[in-house]
Specification:
- Its EC number is 2.1.1.222, 2.1.1.64.
- It comes from Kitasatospora paranensis.
- This is Class I SAM-dependent methyltransferase.
- The chain is α/β, with parallel strands linked by helices.
- It has a single domain, classed as Rossmann fold (3-Layer(aba) Sandwich), CATH 3.40.50.
- 31% of the residues lie in helices and 21% in strands.
- It is built from eight helices and seven strands, in the order H-H-E-E-H-E-H-H-E-H-E-H-H-E-E.
- The chain has a seven-stranded mixed sheet with strand order 3-2-1-4-5-7-6, with helices on both faces.
- Strand 2, helix 3 and strand 3 form a beta-alpha-beta unit.
- The protein starts with 20 loop residues before the first helix and ends with a strand.
Length: 211
Amino acid sequence: MPEDRETPKPGTPTGGATADASYTERLVTLEQSGIKRLLPTQAPYRWNLRRLELGRVLDVGCGVGRNLQNCGPDSVGVDHNETSVDTARARGLTAYTAAEFEADPELSRPGAFDSMLVAHVLEHLPLETCKELMAGYLPSIRSGGKVVLITPQAAGYRSDPTHVRFVDFAALRSLAEEAGLRVERTYSFPLPEAAGKVFKYNEYVLVGLVP
């Protein structure tokens, strides 16, 4: 889209390199590029999400639904890119723009979800916007629910020109703790952190608990 035509939820990024149709097209193309056409490269990441037993997930920054499709059937995605939301819906997923989410009293009520997933989003945003994003959506997660933050490691960070800030374990922990979460654990996936210098699909993962 050439411009956003909605009033977003506080903390939701607007404009920029991830907001228009060309970014959605890029996501779809990357899903089907190279070795991904021949091998089930997403299998380890699907397994990683499922083993966390996240229940009903609010996938913040869901994009075209790559992770959302591996969450529970009653999970919901939200994204600031209208074209990405339309693509996720075309795949049979439940996704909303930020304004649609906020306008729906059932979706935005306190404690409506068991967990929140923020995967490959924080590296696209300035720190203050990340803080606002967390504060804006955390009330939708029930007490005792999980928050999973995932960001790319060094090689993955370098691979995308829309990344603006490197978010490692220390940055994830700081953000989570400032948001009032209790950090349950952090880990590198699927390989040890050293591999992330060359393997662009290695991820930092933080699992936190809502008080």
